[in-house]
Design goal:
The structure is a homodimer. Chain A is α/β, with parallel strands linked by helices. In chain A, 45% of the residues lie in helices and 17% in strands. Chain A contains 13 helices and twelve strands. At the A-B interface, α4, α5, β2, α6 and α11 of A face α4, α5, β2, α6 and α11 of B. Chain A binds a DNA duplex through α2 and α4.
DNA sequence: CTGAAAGCGCTTACAG
DNA sequence: CTGAAAGCGCTTACAG
């Protein structure tokens, strides 16, 4: 482990000069010395000590990826493939910019703040924010810039990257309407709990409205989670007198549950029931028929979050910004045309 | 940001005494002073600066999770849900032990070594090692302890956590044999490329042997990857004169591809073809019929890796150790009994 | 049990 | 363009 000091000694210059070379302050070093010092650095494979740099400068070059623990199970949310993808992309993008990423799973705001000051974190990205109260408090108290994914509060300045959920609900519904469907179900977690779900539902209502339809309460399946929830919805649909000809599920796993249960009860997908999901997760292409679903561009999302954070780190003016990304339909085989 | 020095001043003691309190060296502090100092720490919400600690002690308390980038795409391997789960579990376990985790995706050994010395990493865990040459070089050159998951070389000391793949292949095959199957296919990536696949195949051969059967080359589908590969295998099976009555796939996604294609070609699963996968990944339960598969306990695996690493960090004697975890069959609906 | 000194490896701020 | 000084916030090693 050779140090900057030793390099300075070997080159016969001051530590400052070596430091300037390492930090590419070429204006402060003569080309000859720079070259000579570079050679020595190369020769000994010198690698700067980030802890020392962090201590003396005020920048740690560490970004925290904040991972709320799941309520009940306290499992890591990296169990969710979406989160894994986001973290993976974020790490790669940050690495290109010479930032390092630390993971920080947490239950309380306190834990995050402690973590942040432990390492003098330069900035944080919060993924899959679950509880609004915590997210709110975090954006208020975070010492360094914080980018929140998928959540925004209008009552305080914050950095956020959003997805156009209303549009997602709208285009999914429109897609079905254009194919002749008129009785369209909408299944998801409790609408009131989540603004994401609420927005998607609003898009659904808007599309129906354009066709002179109003939402049928019987077709709003609220309060169903993941695959088991989807299976329950499937059971209900199978048992209905006037079945919907199509359902939109706010999650691929819910859609998968619906499909699985309906197939079990001998309904044909998509002939008897068309299904659209959300997210284009891995299972969407693995099940048969392949699931038609509303996709968000996760890579783009990660890039936006990283850019926004980096801007905020270098320019403290930028503490209130928001980007909303679009969504698109991925067509596979789970939707058929419907002629009443 | 209050510092240790300021706390010492306020308490009227030396920095050393405060340091001893913070580090729980109770033997070196009188109870009264300790209590008083604790109160001050609490009052100001003092949080130690890890960079400073890392610099002066030799321990950074940082563990690196090493993520090889995928060959072709250079995508983050966190796209793989398995990797996400591992990383999530590792982070939680390490956090309990007061370690911090940094992510480090890489293509070259050089990148990892630089990263390690940048932060004076205490130890590393390598997930999903792809290229043997890189893994080998890494275990040789890593400055601090390195735990390798799913790989072991007999020619050098190393820390590794393995899964009993031979047993996995064996029990899957046995499971089918016991249900009357005699023509059993085996589908996976190129057997020669990966010792994991080779071991599973060996288990398959051993189980067949116990029933007086020898492997039929026509039923060894080697060189197929992920879902598209599975679909190809499905196509082949559908077109065969003497179809197998069951197939074992070395990955759930391959199994899903086989099922999807066979269903498309009007074969019934499991009546016409039984399928067993490996991994018990999310899709296994989302498809219909639910996929019977060989599961490894990822939580346990992560815990073993973390324990092994922590032991090696605190005791430099422990630089050669290996644990092999067992596997089990998760029964769902993709296997039927077979009567020739 | 307690403390004064020195140092970890770097950068900032200031002089020249 | 170059450098000497001071300091970032902690711990180690040594004395008492």
């Amino acid at each position: 482990m050779i140090t900057l000091k030793e390099i300075a000694a070997e080159a016969g210059v001051s530590m400052m000069t070596v430091s300037n070379v390492i930090n590419h302050n070429w204006a402060r070093v003569s080309p000859e010395k720079a070259e000579q010092i570079l050679a020595i650095i190369d020769k000994y494979h010198y690698v700067p000590n980030m802890a020392a740099r962090s201590l003396s400068s005020k920048a740690s070059h560490i970004v925290a990826v904040l991972l709320p623990l799941w309520y009940e199970t306290a499992d890591s949310l990296l169990l969710d493939p979406y989160a894994g993808q986001m973290v993976g992309m974020i790490e790669m993008l940050l690495r290109e910019k010479n930032y390092y990423v630390m993971l920080c799973s947490f239950k309380t705001v306190e834990q995050v703040l402690t973590f942040q000051s432990n390492w003098q974190i330069d900035g944080s990205i919060l993924i899959l924010p679950h509880e609004d109260a915590i997210t709110h408090e975090l954006t208020e108290k975070s010492a360094s810039p914080l980018v929140v994914i998928d959540r925004r509060f209008e009552d305080l300045p914050m950095l956020s990257v959003l997805v156009d959920d209303e549009k997602g609900g709208y285009i999914a519904t429109k897609y079905l309407l254009e194919r002749g469907h008129r009785r369209i179900g909408f299944a998801g977690p409790n609408f009131k709990d989540s603004s994401v779900i609420q927005s998607r539902y609003n898009g659904y209502v808007r599309a129906l409205g354009e066709y002179g339809l109003s939402p049928d309460p019987e077709l709003a399946f609220s309060g169903y989670y993941h695959q088991p929830g989807g299976e329950e919805v499937g059971k209900i649909i199978v048992g209905m007198e006037r079945r919907p000809s199509a359902v939109i599920a706010t999650e691929d796993s819910i859609a998968c549950g619906i499909i699985k249960m309906c197939q079990k009860k001998s309904m044909r997908i998509p002939e008897d029931l068309s299904v659209i999901g959300f997210d284009d997760s891995l299972p969407a292409r693995l099940i048969s028929p392949g699931l038609t679903t509303v996709r968000q561009d996760i890579q783009h999302k990660a890039a936006c979050a990283v850019n926004m954070l980096l801007n905020a780190i270098s320019d403290s003016e930028k503490r209130d910004d928001s980007v909303t990304l679009s969504v698109e339909i991925v067509e596979r085989e789970s939707v058929a045309s419907w002629a009443e």
